[in-house]
## 1
Amino acid sequence: MKLLSLISLLLVSISFIACDKDEDELPKQLSGIWEERFYVDSVGYWVVNTLEFKSDNEYQFRTTVREVEAGPDLGYRFYYDDSYTWDGETFSYSPDLASWIDHREENFYVPKEELNAGIIDYVRMPTASLVFEANNTKMIFQEICPEDILPCEDPFEVKEYTRAD
């Protein structure tokens, strides 16, 4: 009888662990650091857009500059921390406080402390479709056009991020 009770307890425990694992898959798929990198011929630098997803629906977006694609960041062009929601397909975000390089700045990048702080005012809550490929090492980010506000004949540019951590 004790053996039967132990086996039952083990089976119930495994079922709870299995349920918890399924619920945890969504955040684990998204969490971490994702980078979109592209080379700008006119200035001879790599520009890197980074999405860093943290716990509790917090994330950071930053645009930095590098001499080599996978090298260290030299400086910043844009930066903000904010929160998001994600239902497994649709990513909703609404940054309000951000910092960016002064458009009159002669340099292509500056230290983070020299970015100008400001407010981003959206007329809508931005949303994007996120699709994961290549065993969760590639994320396709497609901003969703708000047809009730903008003409959507030309979709927003698809951005391809790769896992960097």
## 2
Amino acid sequence: MNVFSLLGYACWIGSAILLLWLVVDFMRTNSQFEEDFLLSSREGHDEIAEQEKMFAADREKVKNA
């Protein structure tokens, strides 16, 4: 068994650990939060509204110039 075989096995083990972590995290998150909350897109709403106000103000400046 050479170094590359050991490295290959280590990568497969790392992949399995990552997959297990993803599944556990999915189950934990899914049990803690409602489906409506997880599917909502409220996170960036404030930032988008601020950007829209800024762009509207810039358009107004160009329009009035």
## 3
Amino acid sequence: MKRNDKGRKIYKTKEKNYYGKSPADKVLSACLTLLLIGGIGIIGYSAAGPLLDLKKSTGDSSDDGDTGHDITIDDSSFTGSQPATETVTEGTSAAPSVIQDVAAGEYMAVSLSVKDISSLDTLKKALDSIPSYGDTEIEYVEIPLKITGGSIYYNSTSEPAWRSEAVKSTVMIEDIAAAVRDAGYRPAAVISTFSDNILPAAYPESGYVLAGTYSQWIDDSLEAGGKPWLSPYSDMAMDYLGYIADEAVNAGFETIICSDIVFPDFRDSDLAILDERLSRSDRYLALTSAANTLYERILSGGSRMLIEVSAAEVFRGNDDVLRPMLLSAGTVIVDLNMDELKGTLTGGSTTLEMTGTPEERTKKIIGYIKERFSDFNTVIRISGSGISEEEMSKAAGAAAAAGFSSFVLG
């Protein structure tokens, strides 16, 4: 899809009237809710910004994959509604920092793997190998710049990244973005956030520490391979993630996907020795605050931010960040990773046996988690190892039949 170079336009997206409420009613309800929560200002961000930035529309219209799959997706099944928009030209009273959010039905992407970006030559070959998906036009190519675990796959200039040995590649980030554009696609960066075991191993202050001490918390015993995690309460962690986001924005990645905005799976014994804030029912405020901080930083650089969550983790209830009335970002990518959606999944009192084909598992998990995304623009990612072309196509078709019209393949 060719870009319109006639000058940037600013868009405002009208909000859908959910549950019979007007936008004013939603804002009033949110204000009352926040007043009841209390203490939001203490954790360092203002709720007013997200409340005034309610650009959400329904998502019901709508790691590392093998991009060599020849998958055909029937556009006729993409029946999701499009959010209404109105265009405001430069020079009007509209806020100059507002950019168009990715609306349902507008985001079609393929995701490359770490192996694909090991060099510029392999990247160009991978881009040349992206197949045609029938009448569906792939517009974006997602690049895994920082992956779950903390490894960075470009030549970052972050000193902590180098000192902690997180950097695994010498390929220049500007060259990666340029190669994607030269191939006729729009570059999108994927940045894993708090599921990072590398930086806190070198800089304990960036991770969780035991209450009243400087001792580092790890997610299991040393004998069992326990590792530290980045903490949203750490200024160093937030500075580090912001620096990486800045590098992606400055390199020309116009869309930044922030994944792993989660807490570790704390046990009761962990919570007993950690900061008491982690045991509180409003601990989600730390994650929404962190997400909004990254959103404002990315937006101020001229790019847009999407949030990615795991379908399996959402089912388990590890979805603290999904607070539509608090989040500035209005678009969420839901990763249906078939490597995670297998065996027995337990969420609260519900147990699912995830057997059958990827198509059958897609239908089953969407049926249980779809309502969690009713206030978001929603994009479905189909991922996992060993999925055939036909299996991925059918899984995407099942998600489309459920009302989702934006996809990431891989």
## 4
Amino acid sequence: MIFEWETEEERLKRLMKYYPKEKLEWLREMHEFILKASSEEDKKIRIELREMR
């Protein structure tokens, strides 16, 4: 979440408080949500983009 009133330094300090494990758990949850909410065509496009890397 981006807060308009935060400076860049304050935002970085706030984000540094989170442990890497918490960040990875959040990313996993977002990935699972995106998979559930995506159509089959969206999933195919993501796979193609991943293979292009």
